[in-house]
Amino acid sequence: MEDIKYVFDVKKDDFVRAGETSSKVKKILRELGIDSSIIRKISIAAYEAEMNIVIHSTGGQIVLEITPGVIRITANDRGPGIADVELAMKEGYSTATDRVREMGFGAGMGLPNMKRCSDRLYVTSSEGTGTHIVIEVDLKAGEQGE
Amino acid sequence: MLVRDAGEKIGLKLLAGEAGTSREITGVYICDLLSWVMAHAGKGDAWITVQTHANIVAVAALLELGCIIIPEGVEVEEDTLRKAEDEGVPVYQSGLSAYGIAKELYRMGIE
Ligand SMILES: Nc1ncnc2c1ncn2[C@@H]1O[C@H](COP(=O)(O)OP(=O)(O)O)[C@@H](O)[C@H]1O
Ligand SMILES: [Mg+2]
Q1: ipTM score of complex
Q2: Which residues of chain A have a Cβ shorter than 8 Å from any chain B Cβ?
Q3: Selecting from 3.40.640.10, 3.40.1000.10, 3.30.565.10, 3.40.228.10, what CATH number does the domain A4-138 have?
């Protein structure tokens, strides 16, 4: 299998289209015949990364990369960044507004869900440069489709 | 049990997503926090929630849930129904409470 790369733009505050990028990612992986438990993990992690761009950032991109051993989701946004990444990783920690919480977002479980669903999660962020997240899930023989 | 049969037996009103009603319901999950649903709901679950915005369809499609059931006669936005129709995610409405719906599903053998 050759390396494959897709790039998707994600807009801030667009709650109607939010989730479309993760849906596209899921469809691509299904067409490639990737194992369904791997698709589930990537779908959940990509959804959480996408929603964080919609809710917490000023907009960004999600990148899907498929290589023979690894599926990688990269989420990059233009800011405002996370002041304390360690704190943000804690279950239940959220700075979501009341309006967004009423919609059922802001449980503070997004980053923990990304961690649980990945083999490796890298979060780099600073106020000023934006947030850069890498989610990697390993593919073993038999899980990687044709 | 098929989504369609369950929906008919307990008198749920199908609002959109008929294409998905030949799926199997294998469980029930009740929660209004989306990340919580993402973490805990299982494939084939009937998801009972009072959230009615379009993003619930994305959650249900990503997790391959059986259907979405909106309790207590809560109205559902047009955007949501359009998306449910496109994605083939059944969205039902019921006059019952979440617990009332869960009881009916349990009686039909969904445990
Ligand atoms: N892309 C991002 N840009 C800015 N802040 C973020 C971003 N992602 C997460 N955060 C911060 O980390 C917190 C925790 O994120 P998360 O675990 O996804 O929970 P939630 O989205 O429910 O608040 C957020 O409330 C926010 O303060
Ligand atoms: Mg989040």
Answers
A1: 0.95
A2: 15-16, 18-20, 22-23, 26, 40, 43-44, 47-48, 51, 103-105, 107-110, 112-113, 116
A3: 3.30.565.10
